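Apologies for my clumsy wording, but can you show me some protein sequence, whichever is easiest, together with the matching structure tokens, please?
=====
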Amino acid sequence: MGNRLTQIATRTGDDGTTGLGDNTRVPKSSLRVQAMGDVDELNSHIGVLLCEELPGDVRPLLVEVQHQLFNLGGELSIPGYELLKPEALAVLDDALATHNAKLPRLQEFILPAGNRAASQSHVCRTVARRAERAVVALGQVEAVNETPRRYLNRLSDLMFVLARVLNRMDGGDDVYWKSERMAREG
């Protein structure tokens, strides 16, 4: 992989371009750079979530996700390279099955709300969806491995499930949307 950064303010991006991991330069407006930025933002939001009180099995899972997102970003920065392995997807699938099995069935749509940890998990979910859309857009014009797209799709699902788990940490519950249908049936 490319050289490690020894300084941050290189001024090479002052012209509106940025360097990829294969030493090519591309416009900062490119779809590849957009996807990389969205993945980086998602990783940062997970870092904020890690500042919260979390169940014991959630913290190591999120730390692992951060490492995999770094791999995903690295893969995006080196066209044609694979860093995110399909095994990373299996970790998300296992976590989804484990955490979802403990939750009651949804009766209605839920709001992205509740306690602060759950709300931050919802922020992560929405940023994961945006990152997924960016990777899909990139894949329509350049070759992109399928694992990054699948990983982001599954991660957004996991963040939704974790939001529900986190809302129940201290005896709370989901915050349901007050729809007209629920009002009529309730």
Notes: The mean pLDDT is 90.
